[in-house]
Write a structure and sequence with these properties.
Strand order of the largest sheet: 1-4-5-7-6
Number of strands: 9
Helix content: 10-25%
Order of helices and strands: HEEEEEEEEE
């Protein structure tokens, strides 16, 4: 009887230990939802070329930027696009205007060239929808205080696609996302 009692007590204690561990494990996801420190920022995106060939050929309307704890962000607004957006984004040694091949200086330790399958004009009326000018900084974009972005340059809008040069501090990891009718390019602050 003593052995049976001892075995039962051992099972109860073991079960209490499992319940305690399960309670701790269940609490872990809650702690993970707290804001991540800068040292926990993901850098798994890599720095290789990223592209998508699908295209919803609506015109580019605007380009904006923003900052977060982990990365700087550039957003291309293609209002009215309903499908996947086409793009080709990658680091280049020098930025050359599409069509003419003229060099366009871009400040920074590295240059990210962004091609977007969206013209900066309405293909039917040929009316300009985005006021970028070849070789000039992007209109309305101020990079003061950014950790990664150093410069922007409009390349061209040629044969249905728009080209932008983005100067960054160094060749850092980046990702390309689509959210509705917006194409997003995030560049990490560090590896």
């Amino acid at each position: 009887m003593k052995r049976l009692w001892a075995a039962g007590a051992a099972l109860v204690l073991a079960g209490a230990g499992l319940m305690s561990a399960a309670g701790t494990a269940g609490a872990a996801p809650h702690r993970a939802e707290a804001p991540a420190p800068a040292t926990a920022c993901s850098t798994v995106w890599g720095s290789g070329v990223k592209s998508a060939t699908d295209a919803d050929a609506k015109p580019l309307r605007n380009i904006t930027t923003s900052r977060t704890t982990c990365y700087d962000r550039m957003v291309f607004d293609i209002s009215g696009a309903t499908g996947r957006l086409g793009y080709h984004v990658g680091y280049v040694e020098a930025f050359h205007q599409d069509g003419s091949g003229d060099p366009i200086p871009v400040r920074g330790g590295a240059i990210l060239q962004i091609y977007l399958s969206a013209p900066s004009y309405d293909p039917v009326t040929l009316r300009q929808t985005y006021t970028g000018r070849a070789g000039k900084p992007l209109p309305g974009v101020n990079l003061t205080g950014y950790q990664t972005f150093t410069d922007t340059r409009f390349g061209a809008s040629f044969e249905g696609q728009t080209q932008v040069g983005l100067g960054v501090r160094a060749r850092l990891p980046f990702r390309v996302l689509q959210s509705g009718d917006k194409l997003i390019v995030d560049v990490a602050h560090r590896w």
